[in-house]
């Protein structure tokens, strides 16, 4: 019952915030209709991106940033818009992953076991995300290169995990001094990468937990929670700077992202882990290559 109230509260607040966007834009009825005709298809992009993100642990920015560049959106605004949309989409995925694991496992919910680790990891990574944005602001001149390089790395790692011999996974995270130190370092690194690319922390957390012996779906759930927290923190920078966010794209894509986030936990249960990884890795590889080419053309 408590989880139902949390989910209801999230969607109520999210819908209230999104409904204010047309008012902030000051559109007339005719202008709003024109915007709807031009950008409403972004809704489906939001569904696709959030579904990929919340079923694999890969941040939704892996889809949004290249796609918005294709729409000829300024790279920094594309980045800020990606953060903002993920605040809705990844949060939707997080509350639904929590609800599903709670309903499935009850008191044995793995998220309860990792509560301390998750809390500290989120605080460390979110601090790194905020610091990274202010210490070394993202540069549009190298964004396409760094983003594509990181995306291709993630794609390669996904294909590699598919080719590895499958081993029986437990749901226990090994609490040792080396694993704690490596966890802290990876949370700091993931936070800084996220600050520049809007992706990073979810991918790093998912791979870290899987290699620690955690069940892949549980690792994805934790990664989604990390991504949601860092997206919310990362959005603050772009709101303060302008805002450097395309509100029209945010409006339409966020509705789709919340739907994708809500459906993803169930979808991740229905589809095999290998199938999900193949689709995600292929999509990431294609979009990374396309984004690199588009970025090179734009800067050239």
Keywords:
mainly alpha, 300 residues, globular
| H and E order | HHHHHHHHHHHHHH
Strand content: under 5%
C-alpha Rg (nearest Å): 18 Å
Number of domains: 1
Give the % helix: over 70%
Q: Tell me about the largest β-sheet.
A: none
Shape: globular
Task: Let me know the number of strands.
Answer: 0
Q: What is the overall pLDDT average? A: 84
Class computed from helices, strands and strand pairing: mainly alpha
Give the distance, in angstroms, between the N- and C-terminal Cα atoms. Answer: 56 Å
Q: How many alpha or pi helices?
A: 14
Structural description of this entry:
It is a single chain. The protein contains 14 helices and no strands. The protein is mainly α and 300 residues long. It has one domain (34-299). The radius of gyration is 18 Å and the shape is globular.
Protein topology:
Layout: H1 2-19, H2 21-25, H3 29-39, H4 42-56, H5 61-70, H6 75-105, H7 110-113, H8 115-135, H9 140-163, H10 177-197, H11 201-211, H12 216-240, H13 247-270, H14 273-299
Helix pairs in contact: 1-6, 1-13, 4-5, 4-6, 4-12, 4-13, 5-6, 5-14, 6-12, 6-13, 8-10, 8-12, 9-14, 10-11, 11-12
How would you concisely characterize the structure shown here?
The protein is 82% helix and 0% strand.
């Amino acid at each position: 019952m408590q989880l139902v109230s949390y989910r209801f509260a999230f969607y109520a607040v999210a819908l209230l915030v999104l409904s204010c966007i047309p008012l902030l834009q000051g559109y007339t009825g005719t202008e709003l209709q024109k915007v709807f005709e031009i950008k409403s298809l972004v809704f489906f992009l939001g569904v696709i991106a959030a579904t990929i993100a919340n079923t694999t642990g890969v941040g939704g920015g892996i889809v949004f940033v290249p796609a918005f560049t294709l729409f000829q959106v300024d790279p920094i605004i594309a980045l800020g818009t990606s953060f903002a949309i993920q605040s809705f989409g990844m949060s939707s995925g997080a509350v639904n992953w929590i609800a599903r694991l709670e309903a499935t496992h009850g008191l044995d919910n793995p998220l309860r076991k990792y509560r301390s680790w998750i809390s500290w990891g989120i605080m460390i990574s979110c601090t790194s995300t905020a610091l990274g944005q202010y210490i070394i602001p993202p540069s549009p001149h190298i964004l396409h290169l760094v983003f594509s390089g990181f995306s291709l790395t993630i794609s390669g790692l996904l294909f590699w995990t598919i080719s590895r011999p499958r081993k029986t996974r437990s749901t226990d995270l090994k609490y040792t001094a080396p694993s704690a130190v490596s966890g802290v370092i990876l949370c700091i690194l993931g936070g800084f990468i996220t600050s520049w690319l809007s992706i990073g922390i979810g991918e790093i957390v998912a791979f870290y937990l899987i290699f620690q012996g955690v069940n892949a779906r549980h690792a994805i759930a934790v990664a989604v929670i990390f991504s949601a927290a860092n997206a919310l923190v990362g959005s603050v920078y772009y709101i303060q700077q302008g805002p450097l966010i395309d509100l029209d794209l945010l409006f339409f894509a966020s509705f789709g992202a919340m739907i994708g986030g809500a459906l993803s936990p169930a979808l991740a249960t229905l589809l095999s882990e290998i199938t999900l990884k193949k689709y995600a890795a292929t999509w990431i590889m294609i979009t990374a290559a396309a984004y690199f080419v588009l970025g090179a053309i734009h800067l050239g």
